[in-house]
Amino acid sequence: MTPTFPHKIPSHSKLGLPASARFLVAATSALLLSLAVAPLATAQTSTLVVMHATGAKSPAGDTSRILPPLVQSDIASIKVGGKPATIKSFEPLLTGSHGIQLVIALDNGQQIGILDQFDSIKKFMNSMPPNVEIAVGYMVQAHVRIVQGFTKDRALDGAALRVPTRLEVSDTRNDTGGNPFGCLTDLATKWPDPDPTKIRAVLFFTDGLMRGNSVSQGGDADNPNVTAAETSLQRAGILPFPFYFMDPHPPTRGGGGLLEGPQNFSQLVRSTSGGALYDGQYAPSSLDPLLDRLYRVLDSDVVVTVESPGKPGDFKQLDIKSSKPEIKVTGPDNISLGNVLKTKYVPGAK
User: Fold this and answer.
1) Which pLDDT tens digit goes with each residue over 38-63?
2) 198: Cβ–Cβ under 8 A, 6 or more apart, which residues?
3) The pLDDT value given to residue 323
4) Which stretch of DSSP H or E encloses residue 322?
5) Is the pLDDT of residue 69 over 60?
6) CATH at residue 108
């Protein structure tokens, strides 16, 4: 006898889940999706940014008036890429916990050191605290030729200084290639040690003049060679400190007027958080006063660890607001998140 059932059993395809079970599945799927997306949306990267105080009406990069070091309360807000960022740590530059890499580069087309300039440079080297590593290089044909890598041995750095002969500086094959700022652009892509935990800076001695086929600006127009160096230095996170030096007996190579070098320096440092070192239209008879000024500039700088949305290596605009109307808080216009630097440096390369 065939059994009979009072109700038809629904097929599996028509059965469906209870409402409570369907809700649970949907909630679980949404949670898993949010967990997968959340790390991408909230990823934060820490970046070391060097900042200092300037007068509210002072031009960026002006070192003629050095203000006391910032305190954290001087900073009202920070934005990176237009988005709010937070301060993770705040330390003085020279006496803080971060290592500093300083390249000292000399224009190979000038006889720097023919008088007592090397004594002044060595004195400055020895004044640097133990957290500063120094490398020495020469600016030759749009490159910086490193002759002594980063070291804390000041004697090694001092021994790497040499005076080009009169014959060398008379040969245009030994100068900057007519573009000292091209040397900086090259250095930014070939930094000797791209350690993201260390601050990067370059102190370079040159007259800042464009020669040969290099482009010189007209009037108040920006020099494109300097603009290229500005951008490269910001991407590499390098603070530039151009020191105006002109050989007292330069070979006849032509070039711009007395004001061109300082004008180029001012353009270079306006967006990079560095500082221009010159005093009037002429090169100083002694390097000591301006090197002493540089020490005071570095001593007034602070290192702010900024945490912001984005991936390491992203190049973002930096906006800093001061909490005091009488000062500006100055930093670079743009930063590479995480202080990431892609370098092409090859030891011993010319």
Assistant:
1) 444 568 999 999 999 999 988 877 88
2) 98, 99, 100, 101, 133
3) 97
4) strand 315-322
5) yes
6) 3.40.50.410
In sequence order, what DSSP letters do the residues of 24-51 get, joined into one string?
A: HHHHHHHHHHHHHHHHHHH-EEEEEEEE
Residue written as token pair 């004008």: 263
Range of the domain at 99: 45-350
211 occurs within a structural domain: yes
Q: Is residue 19 part of a domain?
A: no
* pLDDT digit string, tens, across residues 74-115: 999 999 999 999 999 999 999 999 999 999 999 987 878 777
In a domain, 36, yes or no: no
- Of 140, 139, 212, which Cα lies nearest the Cα of 178? 212
Q: Which amino acid is at 150?
A: F
Phi, psi for residue 183 in degrees, rounded to 5:
-65, -40
Asked if 305 contacts 48 with a C-beta cutoff of 8 angstroms, the reply is yes
Amino acid of residue 73? S
Q: What are φ and ψ of residue 192, in 5° steps?
A: -60, -30
In the chain, the number of structural domains is: 1
Give 162-231 as a DSSP string: -PPPHHHHHSGGGS--S-HHHHHHHHHHS-S---TTEEEEEEEEE-----TTS----TTPPPHHHHHHHH
